[in-house]
Structures are given as structure tokens and as C-alpha cells.
TrEMBL record:
GO molecular function: glutamate-5-semialdehyde dehydrogenase activity
CDD domains hit by this protein: ALDH_F18-19_ProA-GPR
Protein name, per record: Gamma-glutamyl phosphate reductase
PROSITE patterns xref list: PROA
Signal peptide: none
Record's subcellular location: Cytoplasm
Pathway of action: Amino-acid biosynthesis; L-proline biosynthesis; L-glutamate 5-semialdehyde from L-glutamate: step 2/2
Catalytic activity: L-glutamate 5-semialdehyde + phosphate + NADP(+) = L-glutamyl 5-phosphate + NADPH + H(+)
Amino acid sequence: MSNTEREEVLSKARAAKDVAPVVAQLSTPRKNEILQRAAENLITHTDDILAANQQDIEAGRERGMSDSLIDRLTLDAARVEGIADGLRQVAGLQDPVGEILQGRTMDNGIQMKQVRVPLGVMGMVYEARPNVTVDAFGLALKSGNVPLLRGSKSARNSNTKLVELLQDTLAEFDLPREVVQLLPCETHDSVQDLITARGLVDLVIPRGGAKLIEAVVTGATVPAIETGTGNCHFYIDASADMDKAIDMVINGKTRRTSVCNSTECVLIDAALDDATKLRIVRALQDADVTVHGDVDELEGFGATDVVQATEEDWREESLSMDICAKVVDGVDGAIAHIAEFTTGHTEGIAAQDADVLVKFGNEVDAAAVMLNASTAFTDGEVYGMGAEIGISTQKLHARGPMALPELTSSKWVLQGTGHVRP
């Protein structure tokens, strides 16, 4: 990266740090008013957004971008409306800033309280999805933070137009345009400049594929929150209602293959008879899903047209109409397989045996565990959080959908009357 480009990243980070105190002090009504107005502006300029997005789609196809990434990149009028709705939902959520988490009066009379406060400057590194640009802005503003957005080159035109509209909204309220900024995306060096900007950036959140997340988490010198690639499993126990179990696994796989809560592996209880095992596999194939696995194992109960799974198939999300299938020795076998291959995102089970459900829920280590529900339900909006910044798969500070409270820190405020410590 040239010195000029590096300076652009650092200059924007300094500007973000300068305006952070202004954002931190915005009142809740003011923040909500800005969010509502931003939503209106997005809808009003839908045609402009879609025109910019079309440029990105055409460029992506010329570069041979995969269908799953094209899906993540693509906007239409309904998706723009959904993005705007996300801002409206955030406006309707409780403001976490200023919430008193705990407090008491010390024996010496000093009053103490722990209060939620903004994190400050929040760096976002993400791929393809232009909706993240707006989600990050909305959640950052409501939680009193300033976002620095490093989107991918593949969505450059879309992101530029969206940020321009958001900055225009801020200007309507006499706020600096630097309250949201888009960083250069021509080379990967700009990511490194962002994630090593100690003293300027308070937190960085990567959102994208496994390689992007790994690069950010291992290369950052500022605090980073790992958000989730989703190698999500769904176990079908012998006690399951089979009609519902098949509906859940197909929903988790086919509802939208390009998202991180998509089911990537179905685990089948060995105690099921061969006809039922075959029914599960054929139901997936009838839904146009390609089934991968141990061919000898799957053909052993009559499955056909299956693909030999590779090590990568078991360990990584496909983000496509592909799924792995494996026969396991009951719930213990499912838990053991998940423990080896999980990314810690979402794991699901279909069972009617209460003991099996309790065991799975207690022993599976993931940000979300679905008991008789599709993996597709891991979503901040579904959880009632509004737009989310991502699904955290790490265990410090935040885990699962990251919404407003997860984008704050806290500070202790102690008030005395001239107290001195003996």
C-alpha cells in the first residue's frame, strides 16, 4: 500500500477519534431521529443504490465470483427496504448507553455505580455484503460509537453510495460526515493498517469468510472480536419426529445457502433403520442439495448419487447447495463429531427424548444451540435485537448475535464527599 493510501486510513481513523466524543454524547431521541431519517433516505434513493450495486455485480461476474458471493453482494428493492427496516428497528430498541449495570453505597458512604459507555471507534472489516455497511452504521450510532468501514473491493460502488447517503443524513443534523467513513479497499494492506491502529481504533470486528476472520484476529494489535464462519451441524436422533426433522434440516440448508447459519452437515443416528436414513438423504437430494460423505457408508443403506467428502468438506462451510451427511452413534457420537469440526456458531438437534435434548443442550459448545429448531434462527433480528453486527463465536465479552449492548463497555463512577483513603 502506498504511503498516501496508508495515510488515508490513519487520517480517517484520527478523524473518527476526534468526533467520537460528539457521538457518545448524542441523546437517545436525537440518535433515533437520525436513524429514521437515514432509513427514509435509503428508500428515496433506492434506484441510485441499485445502479451502483449493478456495477459491482457485473464486475464480480467478470471476475468469476461464485454464485454464493454474488448472492451476498446483490441488492434489490426488497433488500434495500429490509436494510432500511433494520435502521428503524434499531431506532426502536432500548439505548444501552448510560444504563446502570449495578451500584451500591460503600460502607464509608461513597456511592458507586457501573455504567454502560460506548467503545469509541469501531473498525469493521467485511466481505461482499453491502447491507453490513448500513447495519454497522445503525448499531454503532445507537450505541454511541463511530464506525470505520473497510468493505471489500467487490462491493466498492454499493458501499460508496450507501456511505454517501448516510453522510448526507448526518449533515442534515449538523453532524460531521466523519461520523461514518469508508476506508480504501484496493489492497489488503488497508486492513492491516486499520487493525494495527492502536490508540486510534478501540475495537475491530471482522465479518466474512474463515480466511478473512483468521487474518484479522491473528494480525490485529487492537482488540478484535471473532465473528463466525458457520460450519453448522444438525443431528437427527432416533427419537425425532421424522417429518419435522427433515423439514428443519432442509430449511436450515436451503433457506439461504450463503449465510453463516446455513446447515452444512446432517448427522444421522445409527439407531435409525436404513429406510429412514435413506429417506433423509433423498429428501435433501429432492430439494436439489448435493450430499457429500463417506460414499461406502451412505451407499450401505441405499443412497445413490452421493459425493465423497474431503477433509475440507467436513471442516468448512460450503455456502452452497451442498451438505455433508454422516451416520453417528447416537447423541454421544453427534456431540463428539461436533466437538471436532464445529466453528462454534450454531448446532441443532431433532429429538423427542427429553434426556437426549438436555444432554445435547448442555454438552455442545457453541454460541447457539437449537433444540428442535432450524439453524436458520440464529439471527439478531430474529432474536429481537434488530440489525446485528455479526455472530460472535469467541467467548470473551460477547457471544452470539452482537447487537447494541455488546457494542458497549462500562466504567465505574464513584461519588464521595471529599473522602480520602486511610
